[in-house]
Amino acid sequence: MSVEVIRARALDGVAHGFLGRRGGVSEGMHAGLNVGVGSNDDPAVVEENRRRACDAVLPGARLVTLYQVHSGDCVTVLAPFEDRLRPRADALVTDRPGLALGILTADCAPVLFADAQAGVVGAAHAGWKGAIGGVTDSTLAAMEALGARRERVVAAVGPCIARGSYEVDGAFFRRFAEADPENERFFADGKAGHFQFDLEAYVAHRLAAAGVKTVEMLGLDTYADADRFFSYRRATHRGEPDYGRQVSIIGLN
After folding, report:
1. CA 230, CA 225: separation in Å to the nearest integer?
2. What pLDDT is recorded for position 181?
3. CB-CB contact of 117 with 107 (8 Å)
4. Residue 216 falls within a domain, yes or no?
5. Which residues does 53 contact at the CB level (< 8 Å), separation at least 6?
6. Could you give the C-alpha distances from 49 to 24, 43, 86, 113, 236, in angstroms and in order?
7. 250, 113 in Cβ contact below 8 A?
8. What is the pLDDT of residues 186-198, one digit of tens each?
9. CB atoms near residue 233 (< 10 Å)
10. What is the CATH number of the domain that holds 243?
11. What's the domain count of the chain?
12. Dihedrals φ, ψ of 18, to 5°?
């Protein structure tokens, strides 16, 4: 099976792709295109999956990823670095051709950014902590420092856990409501004392509020589609001891 590359219309003309689990060589609970170096999968298999993923989006480029920590931090990448030297951050930007910026997810929202005119791209890992902590804002600021203009930036929010699959408790709801009462619109009533959170819509709102005029949401639920995507929450609910990670990539030719 070839690597499935999901693309956003908003990013037409820019090398990018949201990848799932199709097209890889991992087996068992990690079956497919598991790119998670932090998983318990065979490191050699993970490396082959990462090679396949990069080649499917930007052949010949160097894949650059982070040690993701659910922060609001973004780093500017001017040259490739070794995996063992990955910065602890959750977004990265560049204006250098030949670098494939990669964000790993397994329910959190991957966000890809581009200002094609300025030749600046970015990628962010927006879990709920990073999203409310301003990871998309940090990405935009870092892109501007490289010459991008946020009114020209386009962004796409890739496969992530959908509201119908994302049950949260009252404390989670209150955290968002206290940050901004208008955030209540991203929650629907669930079972007693619980809510269903729309992470994708919240991330898109943060982008629009920051001045991004074109924001595309792919509307793909990682939890509900086990054949296509890895999901941390689904693996947890199934009692599985580990889970795979998928990657979203963007770069400049």
Report:
1. 8
2. 97
3. no
4. no
5. 3, 19, 24, 33, 35, 63, 102, 247, 249
6. 5, 10, 18, 24, 23
7. yes
8. 999 999 999 999 9
9. 16
10. 3.60.140.10
11. 1
12. -100, 115
